[in-house]
Amino acid sequence: MTSPPPSPPPSPASRPEPPADAVRNEEAAGGAEGAGQSGKPAARTINWWVELRSLLVLLLGVLAFHSFVAKPFYIPSESMMPALLKGDRLIVSKYPYGWSYVSPSFHPLPFLRGRIWGRLPERGDIVIVTPQDSREDYIKRVIGLPGDLVEIRAGQVVLNGIPVPQRTLPPLMVPVDGNAPCPADQFPGALTYGEDGKPYCELPVREEILPNGRHYTIVDVGPRETDWYGPMRIPAGHLFLMGDNRDNSADSRVSFAQKGLGGPVPFESIGGRAEFITFSVDGSTTLNPLSWWTSLRSGRAGSSLHPARTRVPSGKWEIIERPVEALPDAR
């Protein structure tokens, strides 16, 4: 008895189709549909124009965000102590006062008058300012507005003939580190040691209350040349700015020759408002990533830079007569 002949293999056309979401072996392994005549996978070509265009779009998006919405900054000096320490990183919003020639990143534009949707800052705002003919950013506090009569008497601000209230606070103990070394030329006699045996910078501080009720802490070390200024009327379209570290800040009281702001600054030179601290480092970082975490200062991340408000006290305030001494070169 003879066996029936074997049936022929099914033709490709008669093979059942795999499900639509199945992975075809030949496609996944670079088989007949994905290989050249040699059986090797086809070389993948890179469209460099598409890649460069994507990077360019990303770069322009970042620059636009930094120019018109917000931008991160870092603090390189002690001029705004104690609100801001050297080594602080913070966010500056670009839109609260409108936009001007200093709004774009890297400041590519020359000085131009006017602002788009401009709105004056409030007294007490901490702002970024770029002096005319400069590419360097400063950070200071708004003290005087256009039309104000401003004067400094023995270190006390006098606005429109009325002394700005101050009260003495207990000394502020700032831990000494790589970014806050407590230099003797800026803080003479301030270096001390706490009960924990660690070095601290013991700073004499005062609370200052502006006419709108916003209050903050300033450092007042001793007599300086900048303890006396004016009186002068702030021109239209200008602002009078000061650092919180009053004896070590090159601000509107200090001439251009001393690397200061040279008087009231044009409103157009204001680049944005400081909002909050993102993080702060003590200067001990190295190339080793493990040191980045240990260098973080505790308790500073997320700190708001908007001064609180209170009722302006009434009554008289003491004016302390102090001799004039040389101004240290500080920004």
Can you give a write-up of this model?
The protein has a seven-stranded antiparallel beta sheet. A four-stranded antiparallel beta sheet has the order 7-6-5-14, with no helix packed on it. Strands 8-12-13-18 form a four-stranded antiparallel beta sheet, with no helix packed on it. By secondary structure, it is mainly β. It contains three helices and 18 strands. It has a domain of 225 residues: Umud Fragment, subunit A (Ribbon), CATH 2.10.109. The radius of gyration is 31 Å and the shape is globular. The C terminus is likely disordered. It is 9% helix and 25% strand. It is found in: Membrane. One of its GO terms (molecular function) is serine-type endopeptidase activity.
Question: What characteristics describe this protein?
Answer:
mainly beta; signal peptidase activity; serine-type endopeptidase activity; EC 3.4.21.89; Signal peptidase I; Pept_S26A_signal_pept_1_Lys-AS; four-stranded antiparallel β-sheet; Umud Fragment, subunit A; single chain
CATH architecture of the domain at 71-283 and 298-309: Ribbon
Low-confidence stretches: 18-36, 316-331
**What is the C-level CATH assignment of the domain at 71-283 and 298-309?**
Mainly Beta
Query: Which fold name is given in CATH as the topology of the domain at 71-283 and 298-309?
Result: Umud Fragment, subunit A
Number of helices: 3
Shape: globular
Task: Tell me the helix content.
Answer: under 10%
Please give the number of β-strands: 18
Strand content: 25-35%
- Which strand order do you get reading across the main beta sheet? 1-2-17-3-4-15-16
